[in-house]
Every structure is written in structure tokens, then in C-alpha cells.
Amino acid sequence: MTHYLSAEEILQLHFLVIEDYGGSHGVRDEGRVRSVIEAPAQEAFGVEQYKTVYEKAAVYMRNIIGDHPFVDGNKRTGVTVCGVFLRRNGVKLTATPKQIEDFVVQIAVEHLDVDEIAKWLLENTL
What we know:
Distance between the termini: 18 Å
Number of strands: 2
Radius of gyration: 13 Å
Low-confidence stretches: none
CATH class: Mainly Alpha
Structural class: mainly alpha
Shape: globular
Order of helices and strands: HHEEHHHH
CATH architecture: Up-down Bundle
Helix content: 55-70%
Number of helices: 6
Number of domains: 1
Oligomer: single chain
CATH superfamily: Fic/DOC protein, Fido domain
Largest sheet: 2 strands, antiparallel
């Protein structure tokens, strides 16, 4: 059974990221926040669109980093939500903070897709 994050948890993680590292609080687009919450568990005709925990984590990252649902701190929030989701589901990120930072920037700049992000997560977790 997959343990997803609730809207409240994602909003709280964003708040904490801004409190800890600076920036502006606030939601820029509520529809995009709803998408972040719903996308990892999305089904089509009763079949999960994202089957693995890595794909689901990648969707969290891609949607937060790429869609900018928050006023500020989207990259930091994206990686934080991803890490919490993975940990909640028994997976731990093993990449160094610098490797994570570089990868998050790569996601933003190169608009990486779910499969590319999931592959990196699989290679950088236990």
C-alpha cells in the first residue's frame, strides 16, 4: 500500500522550507497544488498511471518543480516532498546534498520527464 502525502502535509512542508531557507510564503495556483496532490495516485480505467514508488515520487518532483504551484521555493519544496514521500514508503535518498541540488536544477532547466526522474531516484536510493 502506497502512503501518499495529504494537501495539509504538502502545504506544511512548503511552509517549513520557506521558514528554514527563506523566500516568500504562499500558493501561486491552487489548481496546480491539487494536481500535485492527485497526480501520483492517478488511474485510467482502473489502472495506476504511475506504478512504482519511484515514478510516484518523480511525479511529485516534476509537478512541483515544473508547474510552480507556490510563490517561491518550488525546487526546495519539490525535493522535500519527494524525500518525505520516499521515506514514508520505505525508501531513503542516498545522494549527497550537492548531487540532489544539481539534479533538481537539471529537472527545472531541462524539463525532465517522469521516467528520467524515476530512473535517477532508483539509482540514488536504498
